Amino acid sequence: MKADPQAVLTGTHFLDGDKACCEGAIAAGARFAAGYPITPATEIVERFASRIPSVGGTFIQMEDELAASIVLQGAVWGGAKAFTVTSGPGFSLMMEHIGYAAMTETPCVFVDVQRGGPSTGLPTLPAQADMMQARWGSHGDYEIIALCPNSPQECFDLTIRAFNLAEEFRAPVMFMMDEVVGHMTEKVVIPAADQIEITPRRFTHRSKFEYLPYGTNGDMVPDFVPTGQGYKFHMTGLTHDERGYPNMTPQAQDQLVRRLQKKIRAAAARITFFEEEGTENAEVIVISYGITSRVAQRAVELGRARGLKIGKFRLITAWPFPDEQIRRLALHAKALVVPELNLGQMVREVERAAAGLCPVISVPHAGGGVHRTDDILSALVEVMP
Amino acid sequence: MSTLNPVEPLLRSDRLPHIWCPGCGIGITINCFARALIESKIDLDSVAVVSGIGCSGRVAGYVNLDSFHTTHGRAIPFATGLKLANPKLEVIVYSGDGDLSAIGGNHLIHAARRNIDLKVICVNNLTYAMTGGQSAPTTPEHAVSATSPYGTFEPPFNLPHLVEAAGAVYIARWTTFHVRQLTRAMSEIFKKKGFSFIEVLSPCPTLYQRRNKMGDGLDTMKFYKEKSRIRHGAPTSEVGLTLNGEIIVGKFVDRDRPDYASLMRAQYVEALGDRYVECRETTCN
Fold it and tell me: Which chain A residues are closer than 8 Å to B268 by Cβ?
């Protein structure tokens, strides 16, 4: 279906990433947001609080991030599309409910505008150090989807994609911004509503007598059930069977947890988005994401001006990780260079996917700023054969 | 059909037997709740039950209604989202004292402050029963528990006093001995708009009563009968519970103030006039 023309702010704007993310959420159909004040993410819900009364929806500021991350799931089961936004310390508090959303298959979006950590860290300065937390932060086995924008335009475009993926897979989607992308202001083009494709919630067509809340129809994603329509369904964070009833057997655990993993892994090729340029004949390839990809871009240009054969690969989907693409790059590159605003997180995934086919070089930065172009360039020069 | 228990259609018979111990009072509260639903003639399709974690947190699993078993302490914020996104629902939060007043204590007072239109049934067995009988914020002073083997010394919460101060519009306390009064209270809250709170004292013979040498389930019923005194309108500051003292029961608070959704609407209408767009009932189907 198409976006609601009454809600979409069609036109050319000059927006920062936080505001663009909010507009993306509204365009995607989000009509419920919950938040707790935190730098540098609050601007997203501040804008939502200002916009939503004229669109038709609800913003609620909760007492903490624990509450924000679960009130939105109540709203989803009440029929809304919903999201919350936060940064590191709040993201840590939300972990339990990311697991709950994964277990109960509640479609929703968690936006994390990353800042320096651990703990209170650097509230106003950037980092990309929550990437592994986004993947593994909640206890237990589950699969996750995470997207990484590198511009305000992508904050708009990819937020819509995040909501669509959440509905398609009935899963929580992590939207991994960083402080610089959140606060940088650039041109953002918001298309006409009829140019914006929206994934509606897939409600069951079955009657209450034949509907199973967690029964699948072959594609591993169960149809949703509307609350208040007489289905009298049950949902729980306990291990459950297709009826939604608790089932404490290893068999039920195996069946459920494997399906939660498989429904996303099986679609990985379709949902791992990336940007690739000049990798075919490259001797060295820079792999980056988020704001770091903007710095890496400059390093690539300077290196090429010196005659170096450099390719670039940008992760847009961080999770599921693009294993196949990285393996393909590792097959013919002499080295893969991975700058990121942490002490080495996604580089471990690159190493795992490259599987020893070529050296993988980490270019870490502890956060609080971005890399100097020279830091990335000299790493490229150093590994040149 | 005359042999059918009237509450049976409100239970998930296919999930019985339940997990609760002999002498536990949670089942009695469900019986009262089911009868209150019948008596209030409410449309059952519009009722949703939200529970947290613990023995009382399992209630959502046994009632034949739309039901949500959420995370520990977070039944109230989940219910808040459900109600705000779908205002036609009658949302009941059914959970225990530890879930609602310890790990969920922050949400309890804030939902009461906001006056979210929720009906909270707090089954208070004075302990963490599911995990083996540890001390709760409600455990009376000097009671023995798994984590207070020499007796508790922390002063407990007086829940009616707490939620009155936070802003609840309806507050009552009964015990599982007072089944008629409890059923009536549970029907009354369907007529209230705003944050309603019923505390139900309920035995945990397996852990609380046994450890404190207070007998079994039947002994606890006798205890409730002997120690309870009905005082409607009692100042909530005077209804705190002790290990062996008097149990003040009754309807303590019944007042009206605008609920969250009414306040939100009024504020937006005043500030935005015609530009305010009323939230649609459900927004994504």
Answer: 53
